[in-house]
Amino acid sequence: MFTGLIEEIGKVEALIDTGNGVDLKVRGPLSASDAELGDSIAVAGVCLTISEQDGDVMTFGLAPETLRRTSLGALEEGHGVNLERACLPTTRLGGHYVQGHVDGMGTIREMRPDGDALWVTIEAPAELLIYIVEKAYVAIDGTSLTVTEVTEDSFSVMLIRHTQPLITLPTKNPGDPVNLEVDIMAKFAEKIIRERMS
């Protein structure tokens, strides 16, 4: 379980085709500082398991399903990725409950400065938009953000000045893919309502 509060931006050191998937090597000094083999780290919002570690560099195995369902397959050497270690019982929940189980991908439609803030509009699949509502949470590449606007095919978030240098979203461009995880509470609510109506 994660909080959606990014701890550091890691650097992709290598992507190695194993024939059955990809080994992703990421440099993350903070994340690696107390990591052990088998630990879970959210990498761009995807919960991954450390399979090898060499100092600050952690290796994660990406299965074909992970490459199909997330934006990790589009990564290149040198790219930055949001990193967050799994939370502890004592962790402050300043964001929201993020599982690291990506629901799907969205595409950045627009990035618009507004004073020192940055508005970002993301096109999202209809099957995810039903769970995205104004003033609720959504995780974008693992970052817990508040939804500011929802249309029939997109939603928007606003990044305050403090947040912008701490995450990768401001470094992206229109057309880039992003990992989306909707609020698990919205999915639970929808399931309960659907079952009671059937």
What does this structure look like?
- It contains 4 helices and 12 strands, in the order ββαβββαβββαββββα.
- It has helices spanning 29-33, 64-69, 126-129, 184-197, and strands at residues 8-17, 22-27, 40-43, 46-54, 57-62, 80-85, 104-114, 117-123, 137-140, 143-150, 154-159, 177-182.
- Strand 4 (46-54) and strand 5 form a beta hairpin.
- The model has no long low-confidence stretch (mean pLDDT 95).
- A 6-stranded antiparallel barrel has the order 1-2-5-4-3-6.
- It has 2 domains: 8-85, Elongation Factor Tu (Ef-tu), domain 3, CATH 2.40.30.20; 104-197, Elongation Factor Tu (Ef-tu), domain 3 (Beta Barrel), CATH 2.40.30.20.
- The longest helix is centred in the C-terminal third of the chain and has 14 residues, at 184-197.
- The two termini are 32 Å apart.
- 15% of the residues lie in helices and 42% in strands.
- The chain is mainly β.
Mean of the pLDDT scores?
95
Stretches where pLDDT falls below 50 for ≥5 residues?
A: none
Strand order within the widest beta sheet: 1-2-5-4-3-6
Number of discrete helical segments: 4
The tally of domains stands at: 2
Radius of gyration: 17 Å
Helix-strand category:
mainly beta
Could you name the CATH topology of the largest domain? Elongation Factor Tu (Ef-tu), domain 3
Sheet with the most strands, sense and barrel status: 6 strands, antiparallel, barrel
Choose one word for the global shape: globular
> Could you tell me how far the N terminus lies from the C terminus, measured between alpha carbons in angstroms?
32 Å
Q: Characterize the quaternary organization of these chains.
A: single chain
- Order of secondary-structure elements: EEHEEEHEEEHEEEEH
Subunit structure: Homotrimer.
EC number: 2.5.1.9
Catalytic activity: 2 6,7-dimethyl-8-(1-D-ribityl)lumazine + H(+) = 5-amino-6-(D-ribitylamino)uracil + riboflavin
Lumazine-binding repeats: 1-96, 97-193
